[in-house]
Every structure is written in C-alpha cells, then in structure tokens.
From TrEMBL:
It comes from Virgibacillus litoralis. This is Dephospho-CoA kinase. Its EC number is 2.7.1.24. The lineage of its organism: Bacteria, Bacillati, Bacillota, Bacilli, Bacillales. HAMAP family: Dephospho_CoA_kinase. It catalyses: 3'-dephospho-CoA + ATP = ADP + CoA + H(+).
C-alpha cells in the first residue's frame, strides 16, 4: 500500500523548497500550484470561465491571464476569491487525483501531494498523513516580500487569505520547522521519512 503524504503550509512557508527535496528520495510530488497554472491556459474551460467572470482586463497582451492583476483582485475581495476558487479548484482536484493514482499504479511506495489549501479546502481525505512546513510569521512576511517583491500590505493580504500557519501546524501529523537553514529542514525531512518507514532508495 502506497503512503500518500499531504504537504502544506501557508504562503511562502517553504512548501516548494521542501517539495524539491523529495526528489532525492525518489518520491514523486504532485504540485497543486503547478496544476492550477495548467488548467487556466488559453483554450482550457477554466480560462474561458475566468475571462467571463473577471473580464478581458485581466488578460495580458498575449491573451494569457495576468496573474499579478488577478491576484490583486482576489486577495482584496473574499467573494471574488471564492468565485475564482470555484472555477479553478474542481479542475485542479481532478488532475491531482489522476496523477496521484498514476504514480501509485506505477508502483510508487510514497507519493506527495503539495496542496497549499489542503486544510481550507478540506482535502485531507486525499492523503494518509499531513505534513506542515512551518515558519514564524515575521520570517514568512520577509521571505514573501523578498521573493515576490510585494509591499508589506500585499504580503499580509495574501497571508490573511489562508488559515494561519500556526493553526495548520496544530492540525498536522508532522511539522517541518523551516525557520532555519534549508539544510536543517532537509534533516527534519530525512528523520520524518525514517520514522514513517518510507524506504524509497536515496540517490547518491
Ligand atoms: C490568484 C493567482 C492568479 C495568483 O497567481 P500567482 O502566480 O501570483 O501565485 P501562485 O499561483 O503561484 O500562488 C502562490 C500562493 O498563493 C496562495 N494562494 C493562491 N491562490 C489562493 C487562494 N485562492 N486562496 C488563498 N491562497 C491562495 C498559495 O499559498 C499559493 O501557493 C493564482 O494563485 C490562482 O489562480 N489562485 C486560485 C487557485 C488556487 O487556489 N491555487 C492555490 C492552490 S490550488
Ligand atoms: N530555510 C530557508 N532559508 C532561507 N530561505 C528559504 C528557506 N526556505 C525557503 N526559503 C525561501 O523563501 C521563499 C518561499 O519559499 P517557497 O517558495 O518554497 O514557499 P512556498 O510555501 O512554496 O510558497 P507559495 O505558497 O507561494 O507556493 C523562497 O524564496 C525560498 O527560496
């Protein structure tokens, strides 16, 4: 029986950073953020629905969705965020389950689903165990501002659109404290996989 891990955290807590580390253990990762970009490409059903709902003004010149513009709309307005979620999430969920099951059918002993909104969207039934990547709020805000060049206000709007990472840590089966170096977080991941008897071959 494959073990399915749900990896989550809050925005910029370090999910993608930890997610990349699973590669060293030959553990496949299904990334919900990546899928949410695929399902809104021009020509996809969700793309048409987004344009219908939010108007042509959220498009770039090349007709792709201007993600910064759409982000500024939905992180400022909960009802618009819910509308966008209602369009994008069903398509992401469907793809996520197909990929998860594909990896399991091809013999993976462990599969990771990297889902930022795992708890908010009540998707814990998709996974066997949950892992939260935790950082203190000051670290989170700073890393978010540095990575995406957001103002403090923009950073907090995004952070406040989710359950706090502290609360998520309380809901998790395991927590990786990512306040320290990436190497320190890597060691915590190694220990966790050992504890849960995930014996995928570690590459040299
Ligand atoms: C608003 C959009 C266009 C902004 O795109 P952008 O490239 O700037 O950000 P990106 O998609 O990389 O998301 C960055 C992070 O923002 C957070 N986030 C994204 N969408 C949401 C949301 N609807 N609610 C709360 N947090 C969110 C997540 O932590 C995510 O990891 C995009 O995030 C989007 O389409 N969101 C709706 C789909 C969604 O919920 N995706 C996240 C999980 S599937
Ligand atoms: N331990 C660490 N030390 C220093 N910087 C880090 C550490 N972990 C992550 N970062 C940096 O913090 C930023 C956020 O990390 P990352 O992109 O992995 O977060 P995320 O949770 O995947 O974000 P999002 O929710 O937006 O997808 C990145 O610029 C990353 O390089």
């Amino acid at each position: 029986m494959a073990l399915v891990l749900g990896l989550t955290g809050s925005i910029a807590s370090g999910k993608s950073t930890i997610s990349l580390m699973f590669d060293d253990f030959n553990i496949p990762v299904v990334d919900a953020d990546k899928l949410s970009r695929e399902v809104v490409m021009p020509g996809e059903k969700a793309y048409e629905q987004i344009v219908e709902t939010f108007g042509q003004e959220i498009l770039r010149e090349d007709k792709a969705i201007d993600r910064k513009k759409l982000g500024n709309i939905i992180f400022n307005d909960e009802s618009k965020r819910k509308q966008l979620n209602g369009i994008v999430h069903p398509a992401v969920r469907e793809k996520m389950l197909v990929r998860r099951d594909g990896y399991i059918e091809s013999g993976a002993e462990c599969v990771v689903l990297d889902i930022p909104l795992l708890f908010e969207s009540k998707l814990t039934d998709f996974v066997d165990k949950t892992v939260v990547v935790y950082v203190d709020e000051e670290v989170q805000v700073q890393r978010l501002m540095d990575r995406d060049e957001y103002s403090e206000d923009e950073a907090y709007q995004r952070i406040n659109a989710q359950i706090s990472v502290k609360e998520k840590a309380n809901l998790a089966d395991a927590v990786i404290d990512n306040n320290g170096t990436k190497q320190e977080s890597y060691r915590q991941l190694e220990d966790l996989l050992k504890k849960w008897n995930v014996n995928e071959a570690k590459e040299a």
